[in-house]
Amino acid sequence: MKQYLEIYRKNLFESVIPFWMNHSIDTECGGYFTCLDEKGAVFDDSKYVWLQARQVWTFAKLYNTVREDPQWLAIAEHGMRFLRKCARLPDGRVCFSMDRAGQPKAIQRKIFSECFLLLALAEMYRATREEIYREEAVALLNLIEQFISEPELLGRPILPGARATRSLAVPMIYLNLVEEMDGILDEEDLKVKRESSIHETLAHLDPDLKVFRENLDENGIFNDLPEGRLINPGHSIEACWFLLHAAGRCELPEIWVTILEALQGSLSLGWDHDEDGLFYFIDADGKPPRQLEWSMKLWWPHTEALYALALAFTLTGDHSFEQWHQRIHEYAFTRFADEVDGEWFGYCDRYGNLTHRLKGGDYKGCFHVPRALLYTVKVLERL
After folding, report:
1. Mind listing the pLDDT tens digit for each residue in 168-225?
2. Helical pair 319-335 and 256-270, crossing angle rounded to 10 deg
3. What gap in Å lies between CA 260 and CA 321, rounded to an integer?
4. In Å, what is the CA distance from 160 to each residue of 155, 157, 163, 168?
């Protein structure tokens, strides 16, 4: 697997990061453009908080873990100033999207804008040691915890006919938040939060299929309904490496076997054995998925798999993970990676044909590709 090290290093530092540095910085209004076409031209000047915060995290992470490049830090600070000025609403919530100047446009009844802003704040604290970032990250984590325990505060009441569900996305993102708060929160507090979120994430693991399902019902079981049968292979794979990180920090190697089996299961069940690539959604029982885009092949499940498999191989030396990695690598680099204009495309149909030639939009930005490449480079450097 070491043969991929230079490929990923070159793609990250000569293709992906330069694309965002050259095309995304809004020098007039602040923040970043993320709706970029194939060559990096802006086709929509809306600003999406998920992507603004994720790009801050990316450049601060590069500064913290690769080298202290002042240009990387300046780009991160540029986005952070815009977020701190514009993203928060009067009630403390974080909006989902803004216009170019930073006027709020939309808010979601979810916690994820808050979560990604916290990631940016925590990484900026590590980069600068400015106390304001630490204080705001801690306060935001407290708010997120309140939203998790009282979802009605998000404007999401449980109506009489609704089926209560527990989403995999919540313990997963919280597990990621806990990891990012390392060195910011008290270690004993982190340990309790980490172990709790490990348990809650593992509750979504189907012991028979060896894959994480998206939803549990109010009793903590998988019901025989579309939401109960729903599997997002990319999410399941991402959950695996989140758990591997957390298990290592909690010194829980006994659950590694369970997690590694889930990684194998996620790939085997999620892989399109006829046309290659990872499905976006599947039904656990093979029934028709409700999502119209279920059979599409998206960039991010493949980037998550690249890192998860590299990590699994370095932990175990199991060549089955190396073989899966080669398969994922070949698919991703022939369909998504653009060696001409930089960065990656994001969306293919089931047959591997591009459906969109954009490089960024309202959900795709400077995050999944650089994070996976950076983390994979770091883990392969240890081989």
Report:
1. 999 999 999 999 999 999 999 999 999 999 999 999 999 999 999 999 998 899 999 9
2. 40
3. 9
4. 15, 10, 8, 23
Is the distance from CB of 370 to CB of 8 less than 8 angstroms?
A: no
Could you tell me the CA-to-CA distances from 138 to 82, 178, 182, 216, 326 in Å, in that order?
Answer: 20, 11, 11, 29, 40
| Structural contact between residues 311 and 244, judged by C-beta atoms closer than 8 angstroms | yes
Does pTM surpass 0.90? yes
Query: Is the Cβ–Cβ distance between 120 and 56 less than 8 Å?
Result: yes
CB atoms closer than 10 angstroms to residue 124? 29
Residue ranges of domains in the chain, CATH in brackets = 2-380 (1.50.10.10)
